[in-house]
Amino acid sequence: MSRPGVLGPARPALVVRAGGLSLRWRSRTVAVCAVLGVLTVTTSAASLMLGEYPLTLARVWAALTGDPEAGFARVVVVEWRSPRALAAVVFGAALGVSGALFQSLTRNPLASPDIIGLSAGSYAGALVVIVLIGGSYAQLVGGALVGGLATATVVYLLAWRHGVQGFRLIIVGIAVSVMLGSFNAWLVINARLEVAVRAAVWGAGSLGGTGWPQVLWGGATVLLLLAALVALAPGLRQLELGDDAARATGTRTEQVRVAAVVTGVALTATVTAAAGPIAFVALAAPQIARRLARTPGVTLAPAAFLGAFMLAAADLTAQHLLPVVMPVGVVTVVAGGAYLVWLIVREVRRRS
């Protein structure tokens, strides 16, 4: 059951109580998530309607609800277009949450899996499976997870100096990412031609080959990881106060930090295994969502909603709004690159 409440004169909030659980959201955060949800649904509906076989919204609805009058439209919508549209939403949310986790832990807006090398590590692990083993999707997920965790361990140890500082972590992560980029290029160059072509297309970050197996397995994994974050949420909020204050309230800081890093890496690896490395969504979504919701720190729910909308919109652009069809990763790189330049200039001005 739920009821609206008020935290203070300037911060109206929605409070939900069920059994022994109590959740509280600021009203502005709820409104931002609702608007982003509507935009995401609208964008996904457009993805289902547009294409070489255009459909009206009524025929898309008929196909989704199993109307026998839908005919061939059901094959187009359910079998061909729905997996890609749903994958964009689920994987975008996963990237948004992953970026929010790392930016919250380091308290630095530049800390995201693609900047500090974790995406490159997951890509390297999956690439080893593709080039050397030619394994199944499950093996691809395993390779991406092992590569991401190994990279996170290396970056964490190299950045450790009586604790981990956000700026040092980012510099070390960029260096490791560059080295992994060279390793990945070497793997592709030395692979057989057909394998190299497959790896190059997948490495650009594309949802084009996404089917129901990737959506179901990847979606189930993302949901399990998000459920695990619910248990970590109190500890993460305490970490935002600083390690000393968190320890004073009984929080096991290192255990919470390691669990959050493993969860963030697993979210990135799940997306990478299914669609390849998709850059800049994890970087941009948490900070833009924070500004929209006007929250004092990075929060997970707005980042997830904005990540889902960003990837759905980028995939719609990649499919239908450009002169040629392109991988969605190319669109996110172009848009995210401009955002990164703006973010760096803003940080330099703020520190000077």
UniProtKB/TrEMBL annotation:
<comment type="similarity">
    <text>Belongs to the binding-protein-dependent transport system permease family. FecCD subfamily.</text>
</comment>
<feature type="transmembrane region" description="Helical">
    <location>
        <begin position="115"/>
        <end position="134"/>
    </location>
</feature>
<dbReference type="InterPro" id="IPR037294">
    <property type="entry name" value="ABC_BtuC-like"/>
</dbReference>
<feature type="transmembrane region" description="Helical">
    <location>
        <begin position="167"/>
        <end position="189"/>
    </location>
</feature>
<dbReference type="InterPro" id="IPR000522">
    <property type="entry name" value="ABC_transptr_permease_BtuC"/>
</dbReference>
<feature type="transmembrane region" description="Helical">
    <location>
        <begin position="256"/>
        <end position="285"/>
    </location>
</feature>
<keyword id="KW-1133">Transmembrane helix</keyword>
<keyword id="KW-1003">Cell membrane</keyword>
<feature type="transmembrane region" description="Helical">
    <location>
        <begin position="219"/>
        <end position="236"/>
    </location>
</feature>
<protein>
    <submittedName>
        <fullName>Iron-enterobactin ABC transporter permease</fullName>
    </submittedName>
</protein>
<feature type="transmembrane region" description="Helical">
    <location>
        <begin position="324"/>
        <end position="345"/>
    </location>
</feature>
<keyword id="KW-0472">Membrane</keyword>
<feature type="transmembrane region" description="Helical">
    <location>
        <begin position="30"/>
        <end position="50"/>
    </location>
</feature>
<keyword id="KW-0812">Transmembrane</keyword>
<keyword id="KW-0813">Transport</keyword>
<feature type="transmembrane region" description="Helical">
    <location>
        <begin position="85"/>
        <end position="103"/>
    </location>
</feature>
<feature type="transmembrane region" description="Helical">
    <location>
        <begin position="140"/>
        <end position="160"/>
    </location>
</feature>
<dbReference type="Pfam" id="PF01032">
    <property type="entry name" value="FecCD"/>
</dbReference>
